[in-house]
Amino acid sequence: MALYIMRRFVAMVPVLLLVSVIVFSLIHLTPGDPATSMLGEEATPQAVAALRAKLGLDQPIPVQYVKWLGSVLRGDLGRSIRSNQPVAEAIAERLPVTVELAILAIAISLLIAIPAGIVAAMRRNSILDAGSTFVALLGVSLPNFFLAILLILLFGVKLNWLPPFGYQPITQGLGGNLQRMILPAITLGTALAAIVTRMMRSSLLEVLDQDYIRTARAKGLGEGRMIRAHALKNALMPVVTIVGLQIGGLLGGAIITESIFVLPGIGRLLVDAIFQRDFPLVQGVVLFVSLAFLFSNFAVDLAYAYLDPRIRYS
To answer: Helix, strand, coil: what percent of the chain each, to 5?
Structure first.
């Protein structure tokens, strides 16, 4: 296991290196100049040139990349061009909001999807099965921004049950925090719930056709106990894969959700940095999200060994 973990960590290095090259290149190819954006359109060419030299933007792009990569390898993601705040510190400040949003979205999706998938599999070709299929297709088809607007109009404006915008830290009250996080979490978790529901149904149906399940039925084992003791754990393998792969996607998908609900998370930080042409901040956030993807995939691989005793890493 230790050797496998070491190999996986080594394999992450070229992936992160490739991501850093792509992100750095794309950012510098986008229209606009940070110096001009900071000083305004009326700034003199001399002032813009002086600021570009101060920020190091007057150097060739390969030189800028090598310097930035060297700083990253030393644990320094640089400083924000706008606020002069260390990028790592800016990410750390916004990270709890996005992590809480992702955890709530995953929890909501699993609470809905796993029971719905089990019921659909146990009642194959019934009205319940058809209903879960329709709801799952609807959840996948609805864009995040459209669902967010519908939830705001219904629960925040029409019924006035929940605050439509804003954020309250947990330290200022758990109730107020959850009231402001529930709509964004539903928005972000709906698509995942739809995917997991269909995956849970398909996986459980495949497991229920196995010989050991038929043997358990022949011995008179009840359906509920058979699902809990034998079928569910094996059927969760594909579900774990989907959820693990979606963790990084939730961090990326939070960009739209956080912007609509005015949440001070990493997604909104990235949007603001892009509009402000804050190169170091954009590069740091994208690199962090890429790292989250890699570690979520790594965690999925380790979870396989727990769910399936036949899997051994050596």
So the answer is: 80, 0, 20
CA distance 160 to 155: 6
Within 13 Å, how many C-alpha atoms sit on residue 66's CB side?
5
Asked whether the predicted pLDDT for residue 308 surpasses 70, the reply is no
User: Residue 298: is its pLDDT beyond 80?
Assistant: no
From residue 63, alpha-carbon distances to 67, 68, 294 in Å are 6, 9, 27
> Where, residue-wise, is CATH 1.10.3720.10 in the chain?
93-307
What span, in angstroms and rounded, lies between the C-alpha atoms of 279 and 78?
10
Contacts of 116 (CB under 8 A, 6+ apart): 132, 135, 136, 193, 197, 200
Q: What angle do CA 242, 247, 251 make, to 5 degrees?
A: 140
Please answer whether residues 16 and 290 qualify as being in contact, where contact means their C-beta atoms are separated by less than 8 angstroms.
yes
120's tokens = 């659909």
Cα dihedral across residues 228, 229, 230, 232: positive or negative? positive
- As given in the structure block, the two tokens for residue 279 are 């190169």
- Residues 243-281 have pLDDT tens digits of 777 776 676 657 788 888 888 888 888 888 888 777 788
261 DSSP 8-state letter: H
pLDDT of residue 36: 67
CATH of 93-307, picked from 1.10.3720.10, 3.40.50.970, 3.30.470.10, 3.30.360.10, is: 1.10.3720.10
What mean pLDDT, rounded, does the chain reach?
78
